[in-house]
Amino acid sequence: MLDDFIIRAALAALGTGIAAGFLGCFVVWRRLAYFGDATAHAAILGVALALAFGTSALTGVLGISLIMALLLSTLAGRQLGHDSILGVLAHTALALGLVIVSLLQGIRIDLSAWLFGEILAVGKSDLALIWSGTVLIAVLLIWRWQKLLTATLSPDLAYASNINPKREELILTLALALVVAVAIKVVGALLIGALLIIPASAARPWVRTPETMAAMAAGIGALSGVGGIYISAQANTPAGPTIICVAAGIFMITLLTRNLTRLKTL
Amino acid sequence: MSNLIEARDITVRAGTTPALRNVDFYIAPGEIVTVVGPNGSGKTSLLRAITGAADITSGSLKRRDGLRIGYVPQNLRIDPSLPMTAARFLSLPKRRSLTDIRTALASAGAEKLEKRQIADLSGGQFQRVVLARALLEKPDLLMLDEPTTGLDQPGSAAFYRRIESLREETNCAILMVSHELHVVMASSDRVICLNGHVCCHGTPDIVASAPEYRALFGSGTQGALALYRHQHDHSHPHGPDCNHPLEETDNA
């Protein structure tokens, strides 16, 4: 079964959708949309450095995403807003990555595969990697769930309950780097942010507790992944962008139906 | 019994600048201590130093072993993107049974709010839900940071009466930051006046007549203090019938 590239692609998109949808809730709750985007863009620098030093791309992506996320959370300070720091670091990392790639002699790299994903080329080892990343993210978030929620709610309340919100933030940062590594082959560095934000945003109007939102966002992420692969195979469109379009379609539908049911109850 | 909190000569940083310098502070079990002071005087920093949220750059702060703190922070805002019922909010970070949640909501005056979304609550209702969450900790120390901000006069009077009766039931110590001096001072064992350092402290009477306190708050609050004293003096000789209890209002 795993020998069929479409099956492999669908399974890869399924895992990525679940992981990104789940973690995306925290990205939405903590208003980290730009943060997720910036971390993902910086992954291109990770790819370039990995090629330059001859290590695996995954190591580069994980390492740079982690460094980027840590830098962002420590540098964001008083004099420059979070968004400015993000803009400076993310675009610098992306630009630097592109420059380094151009300087590498004798190595040909398909940049668009890293920017927009190359899911149809996902092999068995990639699949194993994507699913172990997904399981790791889910275990991490479920294990720390109560503490992560408290720290997200209010760092002050967390401290008073003997929870260190900085440690919880670090856990989320680690999970974010993992998602980037998982998703880069599936939707590409430029669209990972969308896969984090859209499923969680689509789930929000329908839910009353954080648990249902997480479950629904993971479900919408999974549906977008598998649906996107199906449509892209039928219509011969690029897989990564098609996945995002499906997620956006679900977002529009939930928004419209929610507003319609609200109108009916008026 | 030993003190719940004992701080010696602490300097507390807020951001890059010290918010408090060389502060000695303690609170004993069952005490009500009120912290007053102008804006930026380090009142919130003192509470955050106690929870561990603010950095203490010098001096020492000791918490009694196993100290349970119930905290009602100032201006708590819950992002509307986070869906949260009042009952779910009370189950953070420890899971609580529905019975415990209902009891806590009832003793905070927030009955039947458990299924409501936090984002849909009024300021007064939300404040009582946050108080209920603090009570679930069965705290040794209840810390309230300007808990009546945004409540109207009857609303805050009702809130303070509730705090007093809660203390009678649970006998927890209360550390409260407030700008409503006349209401607060009435129920405090001790008052600490802060302005980056401890200006003066002692019983409400001593602090109210201290020249440092008058220099900070001027004559404007003299009126407020006088009002409190009048009510207090008034109620004793005449007995409970002559009290003027304010109606408890739902601030919805």
Describe this structure in words.
The complex is a heterodimer of chains A (266) and B (252). The model of chain A has no long low-confidence stretch (mean pLDDT 90). Chain A has a single domain, classed as ABC transporter involved in vitamin B12 uptake, BtuC (Orthogonal Bundle), CATH 1.10.3470.10. The longest helix of chain A has 27 residues, at 239-265. In chain A, helix 1 (5-29) crosses helix 10 (192-203). Chain A is 80% helix and 0% strand. Chain A has 266 residues and is mostly helical. By secondary structure, chain B is of the alpha/beta class. Chain B has 2 domains: 26-53 and 63-68 and 141-252, Rossmann fold (3-Layer(aba) Sandwich), CATH 3.40.50; 76-138, no CATH class. In chain B, strands 5-6-7-3-8-9 form a 6-stranded mixed β-sheet, sandwiched between helices. Chain B is globular and about 50 Å long. Classes of the chains: A mainly alpha (266), B alpha/beta (252). The A-B interface holds A 28-31, 78, 146-147, 149-150, 152-164, 204, 207-210, 212-213 and B 15-16, 48, 51-53, 69-71, 73, 76, 78-79, 81-85, 88-89, 92-95, 117, 137, 143. Chain B: GO terms for molecular function: ATP binding; ATP hydrolysis activity. Chain B: This is Metal ABC transporter ATP-binding protein.
Please describe the structure with a list of short key phrases separated by commas or semicolons:
heterodimer; A: 266 residues; mainly alpha; ABC transporter involved in vitamin B12 uptake, BtuC; 80% helix; globular; B: 252 residues; alpha/beta; Rossmann fold; six-stranded mixed sheet; 38% helix
Short account of what is shown:
Chain A contains twelve helices and no strands. Chain A is mostly helical. Chain A: The chain crosses the membrane at residues 6-29, 41-72, 84-107, 127-145, 170-200, 212-233, 239-257.
Q: Give the rounded overall mean pLDDT of chain B.
A: 81
CATH architecture call of the largest domain in chain B = 3-Layer(aba) Sandwich
Q: Measure the end-to-end span of chain A.
A: 51 Å
Which structural class fits the helix and strand makeup of chain B? Answer: alpha/beta
Total helix count of chain A?
A: 12
Which fold name is given in CATH as the topology of chain A? Answer: ABC transporter involved in vitamin B12 uptake, BtuC
Specify Rg of chain B, calculated over alpha carbons: 18 Å
Anisotropy-based shape of chain B: globular
| Sheet with most strands of chain A | none
Rounded mean pLDDT score of chain A = 90
Sequence stretches where pLDDT stays below 50 over 5 or more residues of chain A: none
What integer value in Å does the Rg of chain A equal? 19 Å
Count of beta strands of chain A:
0
Proportion of residues in helical segments of chain A: over 70%
Show the largest interface: A-B, 29 and 27 residues
